[in-house]
Design brief:
The protein is mostly beta strands and 483 residues long. Helices cover 13% and strands 44% of the residues. Strands 1, 3, 4, 5, 22, 24, 25, 26 and 27 form a nine-stranded antiparallel sheet that branches. Strands 11, 13, 15, 16 and 17 form a five-stranded antiparallel sheet that branches. α1 runs antiparallel to α5. The protein is extended.
């Protein structure tokens, strides 16, 4: 029986390969000043975020903002994507605190953290922070008629509104616009309103906000927590239901319809007492105004329809400034700034006779925070010199883009140059070419041809052996019982 068990396990390994989940929890640094956030992050590799349980509560801290970061690395044609969701925690006082061990369920998988000790030290007080307030003149709400059945209950006026915020009224094609849907509720009126069928309502609202003609970089909002803000000097709770940066793909205006949010609205007892209910449930619907963001065409240019749009700068790294003929070197062309990094394509080199450029490896890091999508995208080129001399990489490489802040086209070009030494040698050029670790092991590898159907053949033979063993086992069992 032990033999049968081992054989069954072997067959399962061949037929059903295991799939590994790559999810982890990362904790912030300690000690840290009181004016900085402590962070707890969940990190996913090569898989989308479907769902996760709330981040833990930390005694002595208050949950603050949350943001997501996406990192994409492409090496030798193989792409790795790392998604990080980070929760910020604001310390309420200085001292020593403890984050107890906890677990979170991410995409159905339970991930554990051992916890940590957190030390908060003094820091200079920060200046006052400005708050982006909505246009109160855009407030437009309508109350559903509620029949007053009980004369002892009265309806009080509430101070709450639903509004769509955009940081720009007009953008160029490809320029990002930050869009946020807020619900504001005065702190003093918290007992008058409550959410009704919120999950289903939010799904329908977000569906109306989607734009078919725009690229969307959506912010993470699995858990919605209120923020304390001031509106015209009055304390309010602000709920953020949706946030994204949209990049229009054509001249169609970005149009957001008037949205509806149905809330539970309570009437309060005119003469409350301990023997009767002190409030009566009703409903109220809040409306946001329609919002339209205009889209402008880019100025005339031969590459107007393909250039990326954003506020970018260049960073560079050269593996060697002096190389011999026939010896490859690496040049990293990194674009940093704010914009749609998915629209950034590798710059196509104008191959000079003296240098050969090979397709680059690509690495992309994106952070969505504070209404912006910022990051860096690196194109790592292997370059083979074929002739001696001093060469400026700017003569072969450049990225044309449109800067919406200056409303002008610009070009990112390398500022480095490489000196190639030695004599031109066509044979040495081919033999000494460094193409990476994959090609360096060719001489040690077996050159025997392998069948593409080898895995299927092994699987088929294993199934045949399993069937034969089951048949023999059944025959022996029946014969033994018969005897």
């Amino acid at each position: 029986m032990r033999f049968f068990t081992l054989l069954f396990i072997l067959v399962q390994v061949l037929v059903l390969p295991a799939q590994g989940q790559q999810i982890s929890i990362e904790l912030g640094k300690s000690p840290l000043p009181i004016n900085q956030y402590y962070t707890v992050s969940i990190r996913l590799q090569n898989q989308p975020l479907k769902d996760y349980t709330p981040f833990p509560e930390i005694e002595g801290f208050k949950k603050s903002s949350r943001y997501s970061t996406t990192k994409t690395i492409t090496t030798a044609g193989e792409t790795t994507t790392i998604l990080t969701i980070t929760q910020n925690y604001a310390a309420l006082d200085e001292g020593d605190f403890t984050l107890r061990p906890f677990t979170m369920k991410v995409n159905g998988q339970t991930v554990q953290s051992p916890g940590a000790s957190i030390k908060i030290v003094p820091a200079p007080a920060n200046g006052p922070q400005s708050i982006n307030l909505p246009d109160l003149n855009a407030l437009n709400e309508t109350t559903d008629p509620v029949v007053e059945q009980e004369p002892e209950f009265i309806s009080k006026e509430d101070n709450a509104f639903l509004t769509i915020y955009t940081n720009k009224k007009e953008v160029f094609v490809g320029e990002g616009v930050n869009v946020v849907l807020y619900f504001y509720l005065a702190e003093k009126d918290q007992q008058l309103l409550d959410f009704h069928d919120f999950a289903n309502q939010l799904t329908g609202i977000v569906r109306q906000l989607k734009q078919p003609n725009s690229w969307e970089e959506a912010f993470d909002f699995t858990e919605i927590t209120p923020e304390n803000v001031l509106v015209k000097g009055e304390p309010y709770l602000r709920f953020k239901f949706y946030e994204a940066v949209l990049y229009p793909l054509n001249l169609e205006p970005v149009r957001f319809p008037a949205l509806e949010l149905r809330m539970i609205k309570y009437k309060v007892a005119k003469n409350p007492n301990l023997l009767e209910e002190d409030r009566q449930e009703g409903f109220k619907t809040f409306y946001s105004r329609e919002k339209v963001v205009g889209v402008k065409q880019l100025p005339p240019h031969p590459l107007r329809d393909v250039v990326p749009v954003g506020v970018y700068s260049i960073q560079q790294k050269l593996s060697a400034r002096k190389v011999p003929v026939g010896k490859s070197f690496n040049y990293q062309f990194t674009v940093t700034g704010e914009g749609n990094f998915d629209a950034l394509m590798p710059p196509v080199p104008a191959n000079p006779i003296e240098l050969d450029f090979y397709p680059p490896d690509v690495r992309q890091d994106i952070t969505r925070r504070n209404g912006q999508v910022v990051g860096a995208k690196t194109f790592a080129y292997n370059i083979m010199p074929r002739e001696p001399g001093t060469f400026k990489l700017a003569d072969a490489l450049g990225l044309i883009y449109f800067n919406p802040e200056t409303a002008a086209y610009d070009t990112l070009r390398p500022t480095v140059q490489v000196q190639v030494t030695g004599l031109q040698d066509t044979d040495a050029l081919v033999l000494s070419r460094d193409l990476g670790d994959f090609y360096n092991i060719i001489e040690n590898e077996d050159t025997k041809l392998q069948s593409l159907n080898q895995a299927n053949e092994i699987r088929r033979y294993a199934n045949i052996v399993l069937v034969v063993l089951l048949a023999v086992g059944t025959f022996v069992f029946l014969k033994k019982n018969k005897v």
